[in-house]
Amino acid sequence: MKGSGTMETRPPMHALPAAVLRAEPTVWLNPHRRPSAAVLPGLALTEADLRDAEARWHRFAPLLARLFAGLADGRIDSALAPLAPDVAARVLGGAPGTVWVKADHDLPVTGCIKARGGVYEVLAYAERLAEEAGLLTDGASYAAFATGPFRDLFARHTVAVGSTGNLGFSVGVAARALGFAVEVHMSHDAKAWKKRRLRALGARVVEHAGDYGRAVSAARSAFRDRNDAHFVDDENSLALFLGYAAAARDLARQLGQAGIAVDAEHPLFVYLPCGVGGAPGGVAFGLKLLFGDAVRPVFVEPVAAPCMLVQLAAGLERPVSVYDVGLDNRTAADGLAVAGASMLVARTVGALVEAIVTVTDDALFAWVKDLWDRAGLRLEPSAAAGFAAVGPFVAEADGRDRTRATHVVWTTGGAHLPDAEFAAALARG
Ligand SMILES: Cc1ncc(COP(=O)(O)O)c(C=O)c1O
Q: Taking every annotated instance into account, which residue ranges of this chain make up the domain Tryptophan synthase beta chain-like PALP (predicted)?
């Protein structure tokens, strides 16, 4: 359905603000949001699932430290750093508050948030295969996953994924490091350098004529009946979602270390760029489990591809794509160029999201340049989305005193951007 633009019935256009339909920047305060104490108990995923994901990351730390240079403690996490007051004031548009950057643009291994989900799902698959093959012995270090018998096993299996780029890269790096064959299905408009980089890893890259949604569904069908392969399903994967969710505990620890209170008196606004929804949804879910209503996740989407906004506004009964409401999904923010949101994510976090803000490509490029010039952050356009959203959101949200609010902008990718690509983005800013 996703991306096809065909619907049996028209989506409820009246539920969508006119500015969204005109592809103009909008702040959509989620009318469906409810207290987390009312929402979380009704979800299929629980805190036990989050703990399970954290434990898996922990088990695999010795392996990650062995496979990836610079990961001495085997943890895939990024810094939490304050923005200088003058830069924060620009971001806030003059409103009071402090702004921190959760620097996943510099996340180890692939320099993007998708590593949290993508690497995690590859590890979970490798663990399952090893267990089924009787290779896991009690108490043995998971560093053994990098040795002969494990690699022989993995070399007989394929990991496949459909991606706009960063998920494919993250899955590809992790799966190739373990010795898997890798196949990445990409839309024709995915960035050429991302395809080149995947091929250089030894991944097979399959290009599709349509958009990202078409690439994902083509890959899903190709791998449906393969028992020697695993398809990482960006739209439907619980493992991806939980891999992202585990980031919540890292952020909570960092906030504690920085002495930042998060409670009813000190709300925490977290700005998350949203494509299909897995990364922001997983992080939002994890944070809600830890902080309840004191945390307010704000998703950010391009004006041409506000798939989560359209889906949540239309209701959760059936999928609705941005094409269905006359938008074209054309954006330079390739990681966010998604026409249809994940229904799994929409149904899980639809009542937990505080707001969705849409931003223009021009604003993304302007912030890429501004944050480089003033704060030395090397961001790709998708990853600058949070900065473009803070000012409009704070201005719109309500008149309450927000002096005690903390704003965390999640920068989701960019450190691995080739120099020429980054220079071109700066030139457009
Ligand atoms: C840099 C960047 N930011 C944000 C996202 C959004 O993640 P998701 O598609 O899981 O919503 C992506 C997705 O590829 C991305 O590449």
A: 95-394
Residue 318 CB partners (closer than 8 Å, separation 6+): none
What secondary structure letter does DSSP report for 381?
A: G
Q: How far apart are CA 30 and CA 276, in angstroms?
A: 18
pLDDT at 12 (0 to 100): 73
Is the beta carbon of 275 within 6 A of some atom in ligand 1? Answer: yes
Counting residues of the chain whose pLDDT is more than 70, the rounded percentage is 96
Last residue of a domain, one of 195, 214, 240: 240
Q: Is 112 in the pocket of ligand 1 (CB under 6 A)?
A: yes
User: What CATH number should be reported for the domain holding residue 296?
Assistant: 3.40.50.1100
The 10s digit of each residue's pLDDT in 255-288 is 999 999 999 999 999 999 999 999 999 999 999 9
Q: How far is the CA of 273 from the centre of ligand 1 (A)?
A: 7
User: Which neighbouring-strand residues pair with 105?
Assistant: none
Per-residue b or e along 31-56, where b marks 16 or more CB atoms closer than 10 Å to that residue's CB: eebeebeebbeebebeeebbeebbeb
Q: Answer whether 105 contacts ligand 1 (Cβ < 6 A).
A: no
pLDDT at 254 (0 to 100):
98
Q: Is 106 in the pocket of ligand 1 (CB under 6 A)?
A: no
Neighbour-count burial of 147, counting CB atoms closer than 10 A to its CB (0-12 exposed, 13-18 middle, 19+ buried): exposed
- Cα-to-centroid distance, 335 and ligand 1 (Å): 5
Q: Could you tell me the distance, in angstroms and rounded to a whole number, from the CA of residue 61 to the centre of ligand 1? A: 24
- Is residue 335 lining ligand 1, measured as CB closer than 6 Å? yes
Q: How many CA atoms lie within 13 A of 103 on its CB side?
A: 16
Full domain range(s) for residue 134 = 114-240
Which protein residue's CA is at the shortest distance from atom 1 of ligand 1?
413
Using CA atoms, how far apart are residues 48 and 234, in angstroms rounded to an integer? 22
How far apart, in whole angstroms, are the C-alpha atoms of residue 309 and residue 355? Answer: 9
User: Does some domain include residue 11?
Assistant: no
Q: Is the CB of 382 under 6 A from ligand 1?
A: yes
d(CA 173, CA 108): 12
Q: pLDDT tens across 309-335, in order? A: 999 999 999 999 999 999 999 999 999
Specify whether 360 is located in the same domain as 411.
yes
Q: How many CB atoms lie within 10 A of CB 410?
A: 26
Do 297 and 266 fall within a single domain? yes
Please answer whether residues 336 and 299 qualify as being in contact, where contact means their C-beta atoms are separated by less than 8 angstroms: no
Mean pLDDT of the chain: 94
Query: Which of 188, 205, 240 marks a domain boundary?
Result: 240
